[in-house]
Specification:
Radius of gyration: 18 Å
Oligomer: single chain
Number of strands: 4
Number of domains: 1
Strand content: 25-35%
CATH topology: Alpha-Beta Plaits
CATH class: Alpha Beta
Number of helices: 3
Distance between the termini: 38 Å
Length: 97
């Protein structure tokens, strides 16, 4: 008789990610003002893609990251694809943790 318990569905289920935990980074700059101004410009040009997102400038060891946060995974992917079509560099940031 084995003492191991039978695996359950939850043993193999992937961790669920909160819907609004994804981000799109549109730049990283040494100057906070430049980062903020670029974020404002991208928001102006791509307002529809970031309508429900929050704009943030995060300081990471002297680099100011221009990001739109609080997005779903699909929303972040779609927004970054729209930016890329217009030759605006971006990357989708998965939730931390």
């Amino acid at each position: 008789v084995s003492s191991r318990k039978a695996p359950t569905w939850t043993d193999h289920a992937p961790a669920r990610t909160p819907a609004g935990a994804w981000s799109v980074q549109v730049g990283a700059f040494r100057d906070e003002t430049v980062a903020s101004n670029w974020l404002t410009e991208v928001n102006r040009r791509f307002r529809a893609q970031f309508a429900s997102a929050e704009r943030t400038v995060q300081n990471a060891e002297g680099w100011y990251r221009s990001r739109f946060t609080g997005m779903s995974e699909q929303g972040a992917q779609d927004a970054c694809a729209a930016l890329s079509e217009r030759r605006v560099t971006c990357m989708v940031i998965r939730p931390q943790g």
